[in-house]
Protein: PknH-like extracellular domain-containing protein
Amino acid sequence: MNRPLPPAPGGHYPPPLLPPGLGGPPPGPHGPNRRTLWVLLAVVTVIAVIGVVITVAVSGNGRHHNSAKSAAKSSSSTTSTSTSTSTSASASDKAPVPSAKIEGLLPRQDVLAAAVADPELGVVANGEAMDDATVVDADCQGISSVASGPVYAGTGWTAIRWQRWYSPPDMDTNELKHGLLVSVAAFPQAQIAQTFFTKQSERWKKCGGRTLNMTVTPGENEQRVFWTITDVTDSDGIVKTTAISEGGGGWMCQDALTMRNNVIAQADVCGNSVPPNAAPDILKSIVAKIDSATG
Structure:
């Protein structure tokens, strides 16, 4: 469901991002020009081809050096894999966070307000259920919704809690400055959460640099919603990207995903201006709570 309706008993579902006119700001100037994006892509392709030609021309003179370099890289990769395995095993040694306690992992108002430098944030909806809606570009739906049923289906999740925060805290406001969606999802074991996180990280990266059709389907009367996804980064265990609304006059959503122990946490931070580390800062506050909950 992509419309920010008032919460029904038990909590309504959060939307896939916050499209303009449906909880976001009024539509402004048209969004990114697709023709320009294609031109830029063509230029990058030409540069890449030139790079390949140059590489082939000089490769014959450096085979011995490249062989030694490849061996060193292989050794480094083995060390990195061992470290990753060790970290994963360490996380698995901790007792899983009980499903009944994950609501306490959601961040406080002061943490969210500090992340976007906006003290007016307030909760306008919350829930403990998944959204059953599917969007056109379903392979990238994990970026667009913090509690998407199709994304979590078949993964073994046991519980989810989510909150939506607006500034000003009015579901029907026409002057929205910031809109935040935050969720925590529990899995039976850390390894199962790790599997989900790894698969979603790979999907997010494949969605980077694309313009996605996030229109809810099926539904002939649904407003067509498009978002351009920037590069996807992976740092300190947090996968992050930014989605720019087509026709939104600069409205964007910074999306980030992370895991700790048996918990997956996600934050979507939307506005015309979003601090560069807003979503990661929010997730780090959740990670700290998870660590405290498991000792």
